[in-house]
Amino acid sequence: MAVVFERPKSLIQQKFHYCPGCHHGIIHRLVAEVLDELELQEKTIAIASVGCSVFAYDYFDVDAIQAAHGRAPAVATGVKRSRPESIVFTYQGDGDLASIGAAEIIHAAARGENITVIFVNNAIYGMTGGQMAPTTLIGQETTTSPQGRNPKSAGYPIRMSEMLATLPGVTYIARTSVHDPKHVRETKKAIKEAFQVQVEGKGFSLVEVLSACPTNWHMTPVEALDWIKKEMIAYYPLGKFKSAEEAK
C-alpha cells in the first residue's frame, strides 16, 4: 500500500505542548515539510526564540540554538556568517520579533543577512498570559487592555512585513495565514520560496503567518479561525510584499 501521508523527517515524533487550536503545530509541520522537500535537514540550524515556541528545538529534528528574548536574528547572523554553508532560520512570535526584538529584526533585514525568518503573528503575548503586543488590534481586549486597545494611549498595531519590505536589504517578504486548508497550502508555498531565496544566496527572507491563540483570545478554536478571517486579515492583508524578482 502506498504511503500518502507521514511525519516529515525534519520533525521529531512527539506530541506538541501547544494549547488546543493553536497553530504552531501546523506551522512547524510546514517548515519541516519544506526542509525535507529541499533536502536541507542535515545542513539546517534553527534559532528558537522566547515565547510559546521556546521549545521549538524539541520538535524540529535539526541542530538548534536558543536565543535570548528578541535576539534570534542576531544569533542567526553570527551562525550564518561563521557557517555560510548552513541554512539558518529563526522561529519567532510577534512579542519576540516586534517588541523587544524590533531593533534586531530591522537591522538584520537592513544588512540583508542571508537568513530566513518565520514570524508567527497571533496579535498577543501568548506564553505570559495574554498581554497586549505590538500587533494587538485596535479594540482587542487583552489582560493589559481589558477595555480594548486604545490607539490614543497605546498607539497602533505595527505592520512588520510592510515596514521591513521597504528596506533595500530585504529580498523576500510574504504574509500568509493558516485558518483554512487553502491558506495552509499558500503558507507552505511562501515558506518554500523563502528558504529557496536563502539557498540561492539572495539575502534576507521572512514569512509572517497569522496564527490563532484561542486560549488568550477566550474563543473556541473554530471562533478563532473566523476571527482571523474577519478581523486579522482586514488589518494585516495577505500577500507578497517583496519578491526576489523585485529585489534585483
Brief summary:
Keywords: Oxidoreductase. The protein has nine helices and seven strands; from the N terminus they run αββαβααβααβαβααβ.
Tags for this entry?
7 strands; seven-stranded mixed sheet; alpha/beta; 36% helix; 9 helices; 248 residues; Rossmann fold
Topology:
Elements: H1 24-37, E1 44-48, E2 63-66, H2 72-82, E3 87-93, H3 94-100, H4 102-111, E4 116-121, H5 151-154, H6 160-165, E5 170-177, H7 181-199, E6 204-210, H8 214-217, H9 221-235, E7 239-242
Parallel strand pairs: 1-2, 1-3, 3-4, 4-6, 5-6
Antiparallel strand pairs: 5-7
| N to C succession of SSEs | HEEHEHHEHHEHEHHE
Which of globular, elongated, flat, extended, rod-shaped describes the shape? globular
Q: In CATH's first tier, which class applies?
A: Alpha Beta
| Number of self-contained structural domains | 1
**How confident is the prediction overall: mean pLDDT?**
95
Q: Strands of the largest sheet, in order across it?
A: 2-1-3-4-6-5-7
Q: CATH homologous superfamily name?
A: Thiamin diphosphate (ThDP)-binding fold, Pyr/PP domains
What is the helix content? Answer: 25-40%
From the helix content, strand content and strand pairing, which structural class follows? alpha/beta
What is the strand tally? 7
Can you tell me the CATH topology? Rossmann fold
Strand content: 15-25%
Radius of gyration: 17 Å
The unreliable regions are none
- Total helices: the number is 9
Q: Which architecture would the CATH scheme give at its second level?
A: 3-Layer(aba) Sandwich
In this structure, how is the largest beta sheet organized? Answer: 7 strands, mixed
Distance from first to last alpha carbon: 47 Å
